[in-house]
Amino acid sequence: MQNRWLSGLLLLALCLPAPVYAAAAWIDDEIYVPMRAGAGTGYRIVHRGIKSGTRVELLGEEGDWIHIRYGDREGYVEKQYISRTPTAALRLQKLTQDTEKATSTASDLRQQMAEMEGQRDALRGEVEELRASLTSRSNELDQLRNVAADPIRLDQANRRLNEELSMLRSELDQVKAENALLRNDNTSRKWITGVGILLLGAIGGLLLKSKSGRRRNNWAN
């Protein structure tokens, strides 16, 4: 009984399909390859012809036949028509596309570079204009500073002149006061001198009278 179970399991395992794995493959050469329902020429054709260079999914191998999937169909084609790499035509086509893409990218980059150079030149012009404007503004600022400095200098000079004038007025007042004192002193001296002269004249007159009286008395004797 156990042997029958083992035999049954072995037969079931043999009947099960091989493990399916997916990988990319391409139909080789410029031909149309028929896809059959089984691994052999006796099986019916499920697709009349797959054009060379067509990408298919590789599902497995059975002898000289390859199990593939194309679209929603599965079948077998002879191994000699399967290439694990794209055909030369496809590689050339891809290379051409890549070259055209690179050329287009290079053209775009050149155009962008030209635009950037134009922007750079424009920015340089703006920088030069800004520098010229800054120089002009600096000159105007210097002029404004000079103009603003003149009133300050004039105000400082006026203040110094007012201070000097005030000092001169004070000195003049002092001189006037001193002159007034000198005048008063001279007047006093003149009065004193005049009084002294008068006194001296009176004294002299008295002395002369007394002398003349003595002489008369002497003559009378």
Short description:
Helix content is 67%, strand content 18%. It is built from two helices and seven strands.
Describe this structure in words.
The protein is of the alpha+beta class and 221 residues long. The chain has a domain at 15-86: SH3 type barrels, CATH 2.30.30. Helices cover 67% and strands 18% of the residues. It is built from 2 helices and 7 strands. It has a 5-stranded antiparallel sheet with strand order 6-5-4-1-7, with no helix packed on it. A hairpin with a 2-residue loop joins β4 (55-62) and β5 (65-70). The chain is rod-shaped. The mean pLDDT is 76.
Largest sheet: 5 strands, antiparallel
- Treating each run of at least 4 consecutive H or I residues as one helix, how many helices? 2
SSE ordering? HEEEEEEEH
Alpha carbon gyration radius: 70 Å
CATH class (first level) name of the domain at 15-86 = Mainly Beta
Count of individual beta strands: 7
CATH architecture of the domain at 15-86: Roll
Structural class: alpha+beta
Order of strands across the widest beta sheet?
6-5-4-1-7
Annotation keywords:
five-stranded antiparallel beta sheet, 2 helices, two-stranded antiparallel sheet, 221 residues, alpha+beta, 67% helix
